[in-house]
Amino acid sequence: MEVKGKIIHVLPEVTGTSKAGNQWKKREYVLETLENYPKKVHFDFFGEKADQFPLNAGDVITLSFDVESREYQGRWYTSIRGWKAEKADAAIGSAPAAPIQAAPATEYPGAGAPAAPMSPAPFPEGDGTEDLPF
Fold it and tell me: Which CATH number is 2-91 given?
């Protein structure tokens, strides 16, 4: 899956040792989507991916991720695990959009002349049995 957005929080790196004695690390971030109604998404990079994709607050990225759920003591926990982050052009998130210019109006015969008054269209005479609302 993919989501585009801007990094708004960089959380501290978390490290530890597994039961097997292996060292691990995780970097967590919060991304805000670039939609009309933005959503905040918490995700992480685990293991070697934590160093492979260093991100900073303000970076606009496309995040490729997997959603994982696991059970622990009868409760379920869901995480978003990133596996790739591609930085977008920095101008996308920070520069205001260029104003849209309207195309020049095309001149048509009679343009600028007052419009003729419209008369209502005649309705066909019916027997009054139709009860359609439109």
Answer: 2.40.50.140
